[in-house]
What we know:
The protein has one helix and eleven strands; from the N terminus they run E-E-E-E-E-E-H-E-E-E-E-E. It has one helix at 77-88, and strands at residues 9-14, 23-25, 29-34, 42-43, 56-57, 66-71, 92-98, 105-111, 114-121, 124-131, 140-141.
Amino acid sequence: xxxxxxxxxxxxxxxxxxxxxxxxxxxxxxxxxxxxxxxxxxxxxxxxxxxxxxxxxxxxxxxxxxxxxxxxxxxxxxxxxxxxxxxxxxxxxxxxxxxxxxxxxxxxxxxxxxxxxxxxxxxxxxxxxxxxxxxxxxxxxxxx
Length: 144
């Protein structure tokens, strides 16, 4: 059985104001998941479909969302970028980074986060977050 080391996956945000990204880990993120592709089909169920059945046709796949859990840190400037992006409906540059050292991989993308207040964990206010890439994200090695 594999053991997942704490900090193996990170959500990072571009804090740069130029074209060259400056990636910083979003503090308080304690889990990251998702990114899979949904089924390659479009629901085409209509009035002549037998009751209890569905019909579908092949179609383009949507981008799969990434989800994360985050301990809220009041006044944190980096977390505030996520809340501002959501409030203004303005995309931010994010990346999911996993692995460490020379084998580290990253998935950069732009998205508008959706943040939902969740149940407290260990007495801390937490948010459940979801980010759906605006275009297909590509996995790539991280340059040290």
